[in-house]
Amino acid sequence: MTTTESLAQHEVLSPVSELDRLIFTEHGREAAVQDDEMLRLELVRESVAHHLAQCSAYARFAEQVGFDFDSLADPEALDYVPQIPTSAFKRSAILSVPAEQTAKRCTSSGTQGTISVVYRDRFTIERLLGSTRRGLELLVGDWYEDEIHVVNLGPDQAEAGDLWFAYVMSLIGVDYPTHHAVRAGTFDPHEALTSLSQATVFPVLAGAPAVVMAVAEAALDRGGLSIPHLAIVTAGGWKRAGAQRIARGEFNELLLRAFDLENTCRVRDAFNQVELNTVMLECEHHRKHVPPWLHITARSLRTLEPLPYGEQGLLSYLDPSASSYPCFILADDVGTVRRGPCDCGWAGRTLEIERRLDRAESWGCALKMDRAWGGSR
Amino acid sequence: MNEVATPATMPATARRVPFVLGGRRIESTSGADVVVQTPSGEVCFPAFEESALLEIDCFERQMLADVPLQEILSFLNRVGKHWKSEEYSRRRIYIRQLQELLGYSPQAAAAEADRIGILLTAHARMYDIVAAELGSRFILDEWIAREEAWVRAFPRGLSVHVLPGNVPLSGVISIVRALVTKNVCIAKAASADPITPSALALSFLDVDPAHPVARATSAVYWRPSDPAAIQLVSQADSVCAWGGQEAISWARRHAGDDVPVLSFGPKRSVALVGRDADIVAAARGIAHDVVLYDQRACFSTQRVFAEGDTSRLVEGLRDELDEHCRLIGPASQSDDELARVQLARLEDTFHGAVLESGEHWTIVVQRCPPDASEHPLGRVLYVHPVESLKEAYSFIGPDVQTVSVAPWAILSQHRDALARCGASRLVEPGLSNLFRIGATHDAVNPLQALVRMVAVEAPAAVHGKGMVVAVNQTELLKAGNLKDLVL
Q1: Taking CB atoms and an 8 Å cutoff, what residues of chain A touch B245?
Q2: What is the CATH number of the domain that holds A145?
Q3: Which domains are present in chain B?
């Protein structure tokens, strides 16, 4: 038996799916080049078949919009897989597994009204964790895992509860030694600073931009801290802290001064939303890299038709990493998907989130028109 | 969104809109101009700065106090006649700008100018509104005997109005309320409708810039962070804020402690259709209430709760929505608005709703979801079949302004419960935009917040009702029979 035949046999017998191999294998930069459309098509096909069989609401929806599974034969067809508007998760439980198999009820922050609820099983959560860890590869490259020290400007998992953003941020602590700066609902930026200054090898500061800014300002009050190799990961946007919002460039410069960073490449933003099961992190060139299993389409705001790479539109996702619910979603973010090599060395696709879709109320709903009055912009 | 612009950076397409301050047109101040993004264009305002505030400080706040109400109404009537004339150039400019900057259809823009004309010429109705809200149509000019007192309504003085952008006429109503109560009015335009206040104030100047009503009317724009704006609100004698919770909180935060803040927050409206309704008439009325302002108004019908089989109602609505969309073309929709409507349609399809759509409307038939507060607007009408209209009660709260009810005969069965749920107006379908004389606005009488009701009370010589002796409390105390004051 040749080595190739032996490997082939081994693959056939492997209990690990191609999807899990992609998510959980440490790749280094080279592996990201494998942004294989055909592989993605296959993964999504499997996932669509699973959810059509297991989620009656999704199957009914697919039928109503005239979806033919057999048409899912080439990568272009991915753009026509039925996608559920994320607002649908506000109205009912959408499940592809029996309720007793779900392990976590995940909720959005509800900054735009009613909260979304997404139920995840263990598989789905593990894959989410895998995507987080994979995203962190962009952050540091090679590392000794036990040398990382994370200061998470949020609560630990127990305290995070169902709230998705806090939960996702707390996941970093699953893989690495972590200090949680929120205890019993109280956030102390000075305690976070103390913990940071005690980290010896590879410190990571993670939190929402507004709380990261609070820690940076606390550092500046002390005359600044010198941690040039500190990595800072922000996520979740400004949400209710909109009034404090500053431009990204200004934010990066503030952090540069506060922590004497080597450069602003040490500051990275991450993207996720409660309905999406993959976390995307920026590389040092501040581009969010799309992992190979995730299909993202920007769609025309006027027609929802798919747009070519590089054009701004409404973002929609096919994420085969979720097994407990059909993670084929039409979000209300506007952004751009680009394809091609990045200066960081990773190939594949990158995602730029530009803004949230304006709510009906901000221009439409009775009298809620003059948002500018309230000082939010 | 707004930003500071220099002449060099001001977009070539931005329309300049002047301020009007105390009867004077102000085209620029020493500060940098401010560019405001409108739904379909840009306008450029002078900066609202210290100099404007100083000018307002010099206004005589009681300048209208001695002007008879009939003179104020006569002046408004003269202005209104201009607005009704299709040859009036300011009306023509206004209609054009409603289309260019706010995306209105030609019919909707012309109808809005007509409504402004109708409002301003409705002097007889204004007397009735004053009488209904303040007790007498003479009360702004004279002391009116009221039991054992004479009361008169005095203007509060400087009345600041932060106007809405969804319904231009609402801004005009707000300004007219201030003027008929003899206040000096500072109207701040919304970024979503930056043109109406200035157009109205300029039309006052067209008639007579020296008239007290023209001098008492100012139209401006400011950014929330402008220190002069915050200072102005803190000096106001009354504030009327239309807008979202943020806007209202802002006004309350900066207004003086004892100053009334009249607030008209965001609202939604619904219709109830009973089993015995005349389906054709109900559908016609509901279609009208959906099409007007493209559901952007607080009184726009967004949802219908209909008893029994809804197929005939839906059929009627289809025909009437087609007809009303011909009568009032839709406003141009932004990309985001269109996306919202499409997302809503998909979401409803996912939840098993039956959707029907015409060129400019959508009907969604489904059981009402637990949270019925979100709506994409854009002429999307949800029809919720119910066994009994009582099922609709749980979807009605204080955020519901208008409930239209058909047939009218069943109103008495529901009105008390609907009012207790939080609804503030009950009307027949098709009349949601017509505020009748005597009606309240969001459950208040707005004129009352704009005046001080001062009382002159009867002297001691006048026996009070139920009293049989002169009111001499000292003597009564001495005699130890104070309790005899009222027998």
Answers
A1: 374
A2: 3.40.50.12780
A3: 2-264 (3.40.605.10), 268-427 (3.40.309.10)
As for the ipTM of the complex, it is 0.84
pLDDT digits (tens, 9 = 90+) for B69-114: 999 999 999 999 999 999 999 999 999 999 999 999 999 999 999 9
pLDDT in tens, B21-66: 999 999 987 778 899 988 788 999 999 999 999 999 999 999 999 9
Contacts of A10 (CB under 8 A, 6+ apart): none
Query: DSSP letters of A332-372?
Result: EEEEEEEES--TTS--SEEEEEEEEPPPHHHHTSTT---GG
Nearest CA to CA, how far is B359 from chain A (Å)? Answer: 14
DSSP three-state, residue B197: helix
Residue ranges in chain A assigned as alpha helix (H): 3-13, 18-24, 28-31, 37-54, 56-64, 122-140, 157-160, 164-175, 189-198, 209-221, 248-259, 360-363
User: Does B476 score more than 60 pLDDT?
Assistant: yes
Whether the model clears a pTM of 0.90, i.e. scores above it, the answer is no
- B303 at interface of A, judged by CB pairs closer than 8 A: no
Query: In a 3-state reduction of DSSP, which class is residue A199?
Result: coil
Instruction: Domain count for chain A, please give it.
Output: 1
Look at residue A11 and tell me whether its pLDDT is greater than 70: no
Q: How far is A194 from chain B (nearest CA, A)?
A: 36
Structural domain span for residue A340: 38-357
Would A18 be classed as within a structural domain? Answer: no
- Report yes or no on A340 lying in a domain: yes
